[in-house]
Sequence to fold (211 residues):
Amino acid sequence: HNASHRAFRDLNASMTAYIEQHLGLSTEDAVALRHRYWLRYGATLTGLQRHHGVKAAHFLHETHRLPGLDADLHSHAHDRAALRRLPGRKLLLTNAPRAYAERVLAAVGLAGFFERLICIEDMQCFGESRPKPDARMFRLVLARLGLRASDCVLVEDTLIHQKRARGLGLQTVWMQRWLAAAPGERRLRRRPVYVTRRVRSLQELLRFPQF
Fold:
C-alpha cells in the first residue's frame, strides 16, 4: 500500500507527539530524535527502548491507532492475482506491529496470502529489538525457518534493507511503485549493485526466472 500517502505522515506525527509527551521534549527536538533513531536502528522504537526504557507494547499501541486509515487503503485485483501465481513460500517481514500489519492486509484484501507474518514484535535477538535492516535478525529468521539465504528473495522499497540482505546472500527486488526519497536523500536513477532486480508492480515478478 502507498504508506507515503497518509500512513507515514500520520505515524510520524503520532510518534513525535508520543516522544514529546513521554520524554518532555519540544516538537523540534522530538522530530530530530525520532528521525535519528530511525536512521540508526531502522525503527524509532528500538532507540526509545535502548536509551529511554520505553515499553514496546505501549508505544506501538499509542502510535499506530491511526483512525480512518482503512478508508484510504485500496487494493487491485491484479496484485492479488500476481501473488496467487507466485510460486514458493511467501512471508511478510515488516517493521510494523502485528495489529497494524493485519489491519492493512485485511483492508487491501490480502489477509491469508502469506504463510507467516514476521512483525517488529518478533524481531528479538538475545532480548533486544533488532528490526530491519539488522543482519542478526535476518540470520535468525532464516535459521528459524530452515531457509538458505541464496534461496530467498527480499522484495522491498527501502534500499538499506536491500543492501544488508544482499550482503547476507539473499536476492533483492526493489519495489518502486510508490517510491519517494526520504528527506535529504537523492533519487537514484540507476539500479544499485546490491539490487538484483527493480520492479514497479507485483506482476513484473512473474517475468523473472527465479520465480
Notes: The two ends are 22 Å apart (CA to CA). The chain has a mean pLDDT of 90. Residues 7-23 form the longest helix (17 residues). Residues 7-69 form a domain with the DNA polymerase; domain 1 fold (CATH 1.10.150.450).
